[in-house]
Automatic annotation (TrEMBL):
The lineage of its organism: Bacteria, Pseudomonadati, Myxococcota, Polyangia, Polyangiales. Residues 22-31 have a biased composition (Pro residues). Residues 32-52 have a biased composition (Low complexity). Residues 223-548 form the Beta-lactamase-related domain. This is Serine hydrolase domain-containing protein. The keyword tRNA processing does not apply. One of its GO terms (molecular function) is hydrolase activity.
Length: 684
């Protein structure tokens, strides 16, 4: 099951891309405040296993090859079985598999048919239109085949073809949604490290960096402007640092569609999950002040802190609060549908209902409420007499924003949205850029340490400058001890063989050089900050429109190409990604009936309720059917699923794709799911 538009891919990973590569790229998930009791786990029916010989269970991530000799990394804990031309990788949870099949065929369609035969599984789902993807890492003729599963199957099925050395390699993704989400980093590892026989990924290790002179800066600017035009993003602000100096800070485009005011280096944007690194910087200052250590138990600082699992609670140290390593999964629907009146205390209380779905330290799983707890606990330590939110705000002002000279940075949404600030945008149902439903971004306020800061390019450049100077300010003053600063980059959990997550920071060595970075995504706001410690180079990218996540993610590759004269891949990649994105939207749009089917709409109750997510009121305005969630509302389209069930899907720009499935029982219900949880709304 896949939601209508990537904009509701629960807007991850704040920059932590862990979604499986075979699907259409989606925005990284973002701060997920929670305001209600934990949802129940959403079990999925197990798919029948194909006939295969006994496999090898891997104790750790292990380099392997396919039958044709293509290299990949098989994840630890998975079982690998070779069956003829097929290499089957089964997750520890039975019934979820990735299959790599090497075949000789006349074209991609024939290769796919042969791959399914080699796998031995039944292809029972309608095939959506295929989408061609860019050549990459020595692979050509890359094509994505996406199958329309029904929401109640709780399963994703897709295929990707690749061609090299006169052989097709077909990758089948056949996984329960919950498993794919939980093990997303491992899935991405399989895809990301799959290389043709004899092929090595381009590496910039040991190369001298070029000077970012006017010509090279212009190349980066052209990349941004071209991407902006292809994706329909109204404004992008960019900053560059080299050798301790800002070599560029400016903007491209406008703050708001239909108005002339341009974005620049002083335009305020929500920086979303980039806030996490600033939150851990505040904690680092408290470590330096000896008010806590990275090894201090969270409950020792705030006795009311707890998780749904008592054993996990007892083992959570300060460093674990923001390491994405405690086993808590994303649980985002509560903040999207139920955030009115939520306070920091309420957000922390909700943590007590959240259960880990993997062992402590076992898997990379991103939890925004837990990251919020890190900031609120730090604020409480600094200002124990203040309310948690005010304490955090004051700790950030006194220990981060003011010392670094981040004059535009603020956690106050009202203050931020005055003067020179950007407005969020997203495509409408007809793919025209429009103002996005900005109200949902207010949901991050009660969990703002995870993603609620507003800042300008000039503000974030000052932070990056300090990181590159290992704790020193431009005047030479030591703002923070080097060892305390760098501890935030130490690996706490593996994302892939090339990347680790520390405390609100990722360290990535995909192209042979160290890139420290983080990104952030909320409705209509997508940003990234990155720096190369060995080369003294840093960059900041802030955008005000969906799908700006492509610009901020591919910009890193473009920067490396410009610095090291790398292969020119980024321009083609961003163009193809944009094409894929809009082709995917067009395909999904054809599945929808808008306005919603009148007969299906007439069968809806007027009022539904769920203990965790609140209420939905159903109304009509002419031919339109409206779902009012309280905090926000949207017209909905209807969709008939392959199994005969009916879904209603929101269509408001920025929050398109919230899908609710009509129940089949006598009592009227609507069911909504994220990957690892489901919630049933009952007629009130």
């Amino acid at each position: 099951m896949r939601s209508f538009l990537p904009a509701f891919a629960l807007v991850t990973l704040a920059a932590c891309a862990s979604s499986p590569e075979p699907t259409i790229p989606t925005p990284p998930a973002e701060p997920a405040p929670s305001s209600a009791p934990a949802a129940s786990a959403a079990p999925a029916p197990e798919a029948p296993a194909p006939q295969a010989v006994a496999g090898e269970r891997l104790a750790a991530d292990t380099p392997k090859t396919t039958v044709a000799g293509n290299s990949f990394i098989a994840p630890g804990g998975w079982t690998m079985t070779v069956k003829g031309k097929a290499t089957l990788l089964e997750a520890p949870e039975a019934g979820s598999r990735i299959v790599l099949v090497d075949v000789q065929a006349k074209d991609a369609d024939a290769a796919v048919a042969l791959a399914w035969a080699a796998y031995g599984a039944e292809v029972k789902w309608p095939l959506r239109p295929t989408i061609d993807a860019p050549d990459k890492d020595g692979w050509t003729r890359v094509r994505i085949y996406d199958y329309q599963t029904s929401p109640n199957e709780k399963r994703g099925v897709s295929v990707m073809t690749r061609f090299a050395n006169d052989t097709w390699t077909v990758v089948i993704y056949d996984m329960e949604d919950a498993v794919g989400d939980k093990r997303g980093a491992q899935v991405s590892q399989i895809y990301g490290r799959l290389l043709p026989k004899g092929q090595a990924r381009e590496s910039f290790a040991g190369k001298k960096a070029n000077t970012l002179d006017p010509a090279r800066i212009a190349a980066l600017g052209k990349f941004v402007e071209t991407a902006q035009q292809k994706l329909g993003v109204p404004g992008v602000s960019v900053g560059l640092i080299q050798g301790g100096k800002v070599v560029f800070a400016g903007g491209f485009g406008v703050r708001e569609l239909g108005k002339k005011a341009a974005v620049d280096a002083d335009t305020k944007y929500i920086i979303a999950s980039n806030t996490k690194a600033l939150t851990t910087l505040m904690l680092a200052k408290l470590v330096e002040e000896k008010k806590l250590t990275w090894e201090t138990a969270a409950t020792g600082l705030l006795p009311s802190f707890k998780l749904g699992d008592q054993d996990t609670t007892s083992r959570v140290l300060v460093k674990h609060l923001i390491c994405a390593c405690t086993g808590l999964p994303r649980q985002d629907l509560e903040w999207i549908l139920q955030f009115q009146g939520l306070t920091p205390d309420g957000a922390l209380a909700t943590l007590g209902t959240m259960q880990p779905t993997s062992k402590f330290g076992e898997l990379f799983q991103y939890s925004n409420p837990l990251a919020a707890a890190a900031g609120f606990i730090g604020g409480h330590v600094a200002f124990p007499k203040l309310e948690l939110g005010k304490a955090y705000d004051e700790a950030m002002r006194t220990r981060v924003f003011e010392p670094l000279g981040m004059k535009g940075a603020t956690l106050d949404f009202k203050r931020a949205q005055t003067g020179n600030y950007a407005v969020p945008h997203a495509p409408d149902l007809d793919d025209k850029p429009a103002r996005a439903l900005a109200a949902v971004n207010d949901a991050v306020i009660p969990v703002r340490p995870a993603g609620g800061a507003w800042a300008t390019v000039n503000d974030v450049l000052k932070y990056v400058q300090m990181e590159l100077a290992e704790g020193k300010l431009p005047d030479g003053k030591q703002y923070l001890e080097k060892d305390v600063l760098l501890a935030r980059r130490a690996p706490q959990v593996s994302i892939s063989p090339d990347a680790t997550y520390g405390m609100g920071l990722m360290v990535d060595k995909k192209w042979g050089v160290t890139v420290v970075h983080h990104g952030g995504d909320l409705i209509g706001f997508h940003s990234d900050m990155m720096w190369l410690p060995e080369y003294g180079v840093g960059a900041v990218v802030l955008t005000n429109g969906d799908p700006g996540w492509y610009i901020r993610s591919v910009f890193q590759r473009k920067l490396l190409e410009v610095l090291f004269d790398g292969r020119p891949e980024a321009d083609t990649e961003i163009a193809t990604m944009g094409k894929m994105y809009f082709e995917h939207r067009a395909t999904e749009r054809k599945l929808l009936t808008s306005p919603a089917d009148a007969a299906a709409s007439a069968k809806l109750a007027a009022h539904y309720t769920n203990a965790a997510l609140g209420e939905i009121k159903v109304s009509r305005a002419g031919a339109a059917t409206i779902f009012d969630f309280g905090e926000w509302k949207s017209e909905v389209a209807s969709k008939k699923n392959p199994d005969g069930t009916i879904s209603f899907v929101t269509t408001v720009p920025g929050m398109m794709g919230v899908e609710l499935v009509v129940g089949s029982a006598a009592k009227r219900t609507l069911t909504i799911r994220d990957a690892q949880h489901e919630y049933v709304f009952n007629e009130k």
